Amino acid sequence: MTSGNFSPTLGHGIALALLPADVEAGGRLALDQRGTEVPATVVDLPFVG
After folding, report:
1. Looking at residue 14, what is its pLDDT?
2. What is the four-CA torsion angle of 28, 7, 9, 41, rounded to 10 degrees?
3. Helix (H) or strand (E) holding 11
4. pLDDT for 8
5. Which run of H or of E encompasses 12?
6. pLDDT of 28
7. Long-range contacts, 24-33 (Cβ 8 Å, 24+)
8. 46 cis-preceded (ω within 30 degrees of 0)
9. In the prediction, which pLDDT does 47 show?
10. pLDDT value at position 2?
11. Taking the CA atoms of the chain, what radius of gyration do you get in angstroms?
12. How far apart are CA 6 and CA 13, in angstroms?
């Protein structure tokens, strides 16, 4: 993850990350948030259209 924060517009956390080229939008990932596994979904930019 390169950066992340809470999105008041979406009501949950958002983040930017460098991922392998074969990971597509809609893909499911697990993030390590200070020792806790957190589910994540890959989406295209922008977060809000």
Report:
1. 86
2. 0
3. none
4. 92
5. strand 12-16
6. 94
7. 31/1
8. yes
9. 64
10. 83
11. 11
12. 4
Which tens digits make up the pLDDT trace of 1-49?
Answer: 788 899 898 898 888 888 898 999 999 999 888 899 989 899 887 766 5
Host H or E run for residue 24: none
12-16 and 3-7 as β-strands: parallel, antiparallel, unpaired? antiparallel
Site of tokens 């991922």: 19
CA angle 39, 42, 44 (to 5 degrees): 150
Q: How far apart are CA 42 and CA 27, in angstroms?
A: 5
Cα 24 off chain centre by: 12
Integer angstrom CA distances of residue 23 from 6, 30, 38: 23, 13, 18
